[in-house]
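Might you be able to review the protein record set out just below?
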Amino acid sequence: MNGLEFQDRHLVNAAEGWLELGVPTEAARELRLLSPTALVHSRVLDIRWRIHASSHQWDLALDVARLFISLVPNDPMGWIHQSYTLHELKQTSEAFLQLEPLADHFPDTDLIPYNLACYACQLGDLLSAQSWLERAAKKTGFLPLKQMALEDSDLRPLWEFIKKL
């Protein structure tokens, strides 16, 4: 993790471990021990967002996502986190509008077209959703995407289409 001192790297790794174990409170405790310079590292911002998201603290998650974007605008995760948070806040149209222009800016990121497929589906634009899903599948591979999509309730209206992929 470039830019992080040894102790900070250890704390970040521990925080990620706690998140993987499903204990966000312990992950947050690890982050409180970081040096001030580590607090704006993209990995730390990602973990902070995941802590709030796992606790469904969407207003706090949105604040972190927006901070992430302002500090590291060339990292697609800040943008992805922002749109996902907006979707969770029932602002799906806004999530789509903010993320859609970034699909070409981050062409190697499969989560952007996948999330756009989810948002389009939830907005009732099934043809657009299919198109975004096919675009995501070209990056991810059809089998991994199919397995993930058939478990995603946001894509439920497309499950028959997805089964045929």
